[in-house]
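FAQ: What does a multi-protein file look like?

Like this. Sequence, then tokens, then the next protein.
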Amino acid sequence: MKGQIPSKKKPSFPISRPLQNYLKDHNRIANLPLEYDDLLRYTSATELIDSEGVDTLWETVYYSPSDMPEIYSALTNIYSILKADGDQEVLEHLTVDRVDYCTFGNSKPFRIRIINRLNDNYDHFYVKKADASRLYGLELEQLLSPNNISFLVEGVTLIEEHVAGIPGDLFCKNHLDDNVINQTRIAKEFVKFNERCFVRLLGDMRAYNFVVDITPDIEGSQFRVRAIDFDQQCYEGRKNFYMPQYFKDNNPIVFLGMEHMSVETVRQYQLEERSLIARRAKSVHARLNELLKIMSTDVISTAPKVAQLKTDLSEHHESNVFANCRNMGEIVIANIQLLLAKDFKQSIVY
């Protein structure tokens, strides 16, 4: 499989007033006691090494004694807003255990590890830079995928919940040597994940941008692949960039599909997932239409990329519905309309 690489680092797109109003109407806006830039005031940092001695590409950052109490208090307050609608009672036994920073990627996220002092149980959340495409990606994940996702915004500060699961690259490395039933289920879920990404045009789903959630079942396990990075929501111009099957990082799972599933089986799973996406779209049609209408007036890519994606999708679907699309928002609408009209085509690689 030929790997897909972004043409260059994606710029940050401003959050328009209509998008801000949408987020406010749907309880995504919060009064936060801390901004993203406040976390940049760290005084030192050390590499974060995993249990196998490998550099994680994250750094653990440290704050001065004068800044730390204020910053840590604000972070626990943000956690209470995200998880408990600001209920102050949950703060009594919570503390910040660690703040990690990653310069890899556009959002340059801070990962906050919160620990409960009573039982040493911990949780995480993320503080990132907000931009329009990332917010559209998060909202479309909420509306069109089987997953709920919590996030809050104020200005250019984005708070995201932690999505539990095994990072895709580690999953491919350590968890594919399984029984045939589980291998088939893994491949099936990846087909469905591939379909969800392509329908709503979420790009760059290489292995480290998704996690795999494993649920023990009566016989074997069930698997769900979940996106964790929404930065590349309909920005790139190449169609294959929105199909996880084409990233070489994902080849180990793709090869499972080639081994365990026929073309007919793959088509069946694609049709199942399309039906589920269509059902979700209809159940939230008012909110989805509101979001897509705003998206269709927004600038979240460049004219050359819009033109290229229109051409690629027109050829793929053998349809002229993209001909009059003026921007990425209208392309997403046209793609979803093809789905609802049951005229959506998916390529077969197995």
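And here is the next protein:
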Amino acid sequence: MTSAQRVLVVGCGIGGATLAYALRRNDVDVHCIDIKPSTPPTGAGICLLHNAVRALGTIGLADACLESGLPFQVFKQYDAAGKLLASNPAPPGCGMRRPELARILEGAAASAGAVMEKGITLRDLVDRGSHVEVTFSDGRQASYDLVVAADGAYSKVRERVFGAEHGVRFAGQSAWRFNAPRPAEVDGFCLYRSADGRRTVGALPTSKETCYLFFLENSAEHLHMPDDQLHVLLHERLADFSAPVIRDSLAHLTDACQASFRPFDITLVPAPWHRGRVVLIGDAAHSPTPQMTSGGGMAIEDAIVLAQSLQQHPTVPEALAAHGARRYERVKTVFEASLQLCLYEQEPVPNPQRSAALLLKTYQYLGQPM
């Protein structure tokens, strides 16, 4: 029997939905809430590396993701004109569309009996030691054995329980993203670098038919882009890239709503990630830059390890301590590698070979058990 019989998960994203499903497999009463309304999820793509696919396999969801996305095992580097500079084997991964991953995870959790409630959040939270009393934004009240904050990098639960000092900081870089039909060339993780090495466009498959592209932009401070001009601004920024993959993909970018722009706001909360009966997982505990494409994968691992710890330990405090002991150093290693790659890309004269070596080294590290 698990040490927590009634759990509130705040956030229905990747980590929250994975946890809701994993807990229901252990017959835990799960209530998962999200402040966002019940609308179809949006977003570009996501790369599930081999560790994330392996983790999803432990709860029976890997096959659905592999069938929806496109598995790959190659990391390729090109110049701005599309000339192949290097091709290296990479540990198996899977690119897929974020809305598809959300559909699989949320659908599995709901089908297993988790209560998935949108358009609601917490108004108040009081940890009584033996349980946590909460008041929701609609005035309802309830008590739980455990509250899990899976509410992202800007977590309100983290701020309330852990303090504002663990909030995000800007990493000096932002990403532009957009979806496109998939050319045959985009059969793995592809990077296209400008001649001076200071500008990078990436492409990842998200299904047999689709891919997504991203462009990394450096800046000393947060940049603010007009929402109705994103497509125009992105066309301008990529004008010097003549690679056919990039030109053909940009031809499909005709409206601002097709593009997104997001600064890299990061945090790594020091251990322990719990205070009493409130615990952080996913981006609420560790929001990395995306260079290792591991933010979602780390959230999936967090969720599965937490469910395992609650099943394996007789009390909630013991389970939370065990969860943190298994997760912190692994997450810290990936977080620091992602940030170092981001900082390398901001140097006056970047060294692509050094970055590629660190990327592949950390891929190999992720092959170790979670």
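Q: Is there any per-entry metadata?
A: Some entries carry free-text notes. For the entry above: The CA atoms of residues 206 and 331 lie 25 Å apart.
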